[in-house]
Amino acid sequence: MNILENIQSIDFQHALEITGLGLAGVFLFMALFLAIIVGVDKLFPYKPEEE
To answer: Which domain holds residue 35?
Structure first.
């Protein structure tokens, strides 16, 4: 029974590592996307329409 508990513990540890990598990837993508948006906003600033 000890071997099965060890395997499940290792599987859980690997699952946490994969989850952490996935979350890090999502936050990295969000930061990159925000940087692109801010860069485009600085490159093409908003100009109100004149009537």
So the answer is: 1-51
Q: What is the pLDDT of residues 6-31, one digit of tens each?
A: 667 788 889 999 999 999 999 999 99
Burial 16-39 (b: 16+ CB within 10 A, else e): eeeeeeeeeeeeeeeeeeeeeeee
Q: How many domains does the chain have?
A: 1
Structure tokens given for 12: 């859980």
The sign of the CA dihedral 14, 15, 19, 22 is: positive
Mean pLDDT over residues 28-37, rounded?
A: 98
